[in-house]
Amino acid sequence: MRLLSTKATCNSHGQDSSYFLGWQEYEKNPYDEILNPKGIIQMGLAENQLSFDLLESWLAKNPDVSGFKRDGKSIFRELALFQDYHGLSSFKEAMVDFMAEIRGNRVTFDPDHMVLTAGSTSANETLMFCLAEKGDAFLLPTPYYPGFDRDLKWRTGVEIVPIHCSSDNNFQITESALEQAYEEAQNLNLNVKGILVTNPSNPLGTTLSLEELNLLVDFISGHKNMHLISDEIYSGTVFNSPGFVSVMEVLNNRFSDADEAIWDRVHVVYSLSKDLGLPGFRVGCIYSENDTVVAAATKMSSFGLVSSQTQYLLSAMLEDKKFTRKYLVENQKRLRRRQKMLVSGLEKSGIKCLESNAGLFCWVDMRHLLKSNTFEAEMDLWKRIVYDVKLNISPGSSCHCSEPGWFRVCFANMSEQTLKLAMKRLKSFVAELSSSSDNGDNKAHQSKRKSLTKWVFRLSSRDHRQRDQEER
Amino acid sequence: MLSRKASKDSHGQDSSYFQGWQEYEKNPYHPIQNPMGIIQMGLAENQLSFDLLESWLRRNSNTMALKKDGVSAFKDLALFQDYHGLPAFKEALVNFMTSMRGNKIKYSSDKLVLTAGATAANEILMFCLTDPGQAFILPTPYYPGFDRDLKWRTGAEIVPMHCSSSNGFRITRCALEQAYQLGQELNLKIKGVLVTNPSNPLGTTMTKTELNHLLDFAIDKNIHIVSDEIYSGTVFDCSSTTGFTSIMEVLNERNNNNYNNIRNHVHMVYSLSKDLGLPGFRVGLIYSNNEKVIAAATKMSSFALVSSQTQFMLSNLLSDAKFIKKYMVENQRRLKRRKDMLVRGLRKAGISCLRSNAGLFCWVDMRHLLSSDSFEAEKELWKRIVCEVGLNISPGSSCHCSQPGWFRICFANISEDALHLAMHRMKVFTSSIFSVRFPIIMMRKKSF
Prior knowledge:
The structure holds two protein chains of two kinds. Chain A is α/β, with parallel strands linked by helices. Chain A has helices spanning 6-9, 18-28, 52-61, 63-66, 76-81, 89-102, 119-131, 148-153, 175-187, 210-221, 247-254, 260-263, 291-300, 308-319, 321-348, 375-387, 416-437, 448-471; strands at 41-42, 69-70, 73-74, 114-117, 136-141, 159-163, 191-198, 227-231, 266-271, 284-288, 352-353, 361-365, 391-392, 394-395, 406-410.
């Protein structure tokens, strides 16, 4: 008889993927401006470090809140004892208001339909436990957040079947891709319980279009008992048009409240880890109009409750509407600026990104730097970037992208100088690549700039050829 | 449309344990606003020593402001989501555990996994040690929450090991073997035994003899032991015979090569919810020598991490060794005093308790008040106590006790006055039962 469970001994926690390996390399040799200027720069961490000053100044103006005081009185005892899995009602109210604000108040949420969880990691797993059995499957558009392989599948026994998205149409979800994924699941003898999307997308950094949202809603409408989970953890990071449309808005516009059949099958996940940059505080939530899901998820949240100390602190912060309005606007402004910095820095190296309007990262096209159009070549390139260029970025294969050559590069978790240095390193690397890959002529006297221009020219002509082929 | 887990009532929350709670919520006692309401004696919370914690907090306001040595640690904490836990907090926890348990074992922080409460810790251990359909033996009576925590999402089963009042509900080798047999008959693979030490609901610590029986049994059957020691800091009688002995201590005593296997089979759970009275902060942990379990449990803790804000504050609190020592001593003194108050009060009502030395509750013998030796009679009595006497207490059946008539009554979650009132109500109730049953005796008494 095996000593430990299958779950404990297998590696379906997914943590042997390159996503985590790059992290480990970084840990061995982390960049520090002063102590280790030649170290690896961490660009694989989707953290928002741009607006802490705003949070810190709020905390400094509101010291009572951290001191467990409300209206001058100590509420320590009350909070210390508070383990009600229904959550602090003032916090849930503040959360629903905040979520509504992010959505331009075009949707409102009911705190009684919210379940608090220790981070969206816990929220997503809990939803799986509520909606699916072992051997059921959820469809996920690729590329997707590598953590889902662990969060959705590991302890639940649920499977993921990918919806393959392609650069041909900027990785948007199409009806045929959905149908194909559904068929694939049938062929694998898996019962499809639903679709899970991240909107805005990680790793793409784009918001789902109205078309895609309608497509998803139509698809689950047309299939009995099928659910749609929309992980909207990045909803507050949208910094450019076309703006964010939540699946809840689409439902609101298309269906009446009485249409339980559809309202019962759409669930939203949210968290304060990305918008407020507070992953350490473990604040996530499930939102659903399905009373049974809310009831079950509430009980399950016992396994991952939010610290009452943290609930109280954040309820006070989010109740300060003047502050949250200011914060959201300023935060988005800073994200937009950073993204521009990354995009233009990459452009200088002849590297393009998927045009994005949200998130803490860009989806970067390095296909032209691959030795061959294969995932092996992608791994080779990735290793060079981690070990030689000393940038930890995430290879598309770790996100289950179906095309080699795409990488996720984060921009909000480091200082401006560090970002500029990273861009500089990349530029040298690309220049080196092009000079070493030029065949024929003696390159010794050629300036780096010239070879770069030649390389870029080669790149754009290849693109033209590809596009021609597709249009046929 | 939903999973079986979401639709069934396998979460176990329809048991009477929770129903009494609901009655209380409808009509809660308040000394001024609702003096006739139901007094909550079903909640194992420690509310006796908050003043000590609050005074520490006042003296250490920097910790609240997330400052370390005058510098703001906010950013670092806000970003800190490493499932290995805040090193300073883990250090503080192992030092706290080491000193709290009389320095008999040095606990080490690399064998520790932090979880959002013991609820998460226990479930994670089940995920690590059992596959669906496999089982753990639990001595009865046990904490009703285990039915949900250990079984619901894991698919694990519980095989009860029946303990009896005839020997003070102690664990015997014979009962262990019987439970194992029962498991075989039910076609369940037994993966281990889970004990709560000190026991909930008994309020007693396991003796060294019991612990050794447990170890011998686990060695013999090649299975795990999980020791939930969440109440270890509430032991208020600390003599050598009635003090607390951790399973880790007894394991340590078996320090030769024959016992290499068992070292990897013993796992401990702890939490700050009972000793420090901080259930809202969600601080629990798993402790184990088994590297594989620690590795897997660490990754699983992603689903239940402790807020870094809370880790920071409590690491500072626990590191104040002088304060903590004082706190533990005073807390235990107050618990003992309260327990004695409850025991005395019940005695005046003609009710005895299991002799206890720990916990936040007593295990109370009301068998003599039953109309018959049955669980139906126990339920009847319980309903009367909740609705007529106005006390929410937990019936033994909700704890899977094999003998009707036992109840768990909590003493550390209410004021002294409320406790006195509860005891008064109890006395009135039992007098009325006796006068109904034995009217002649009552009359004779009066004639004196």
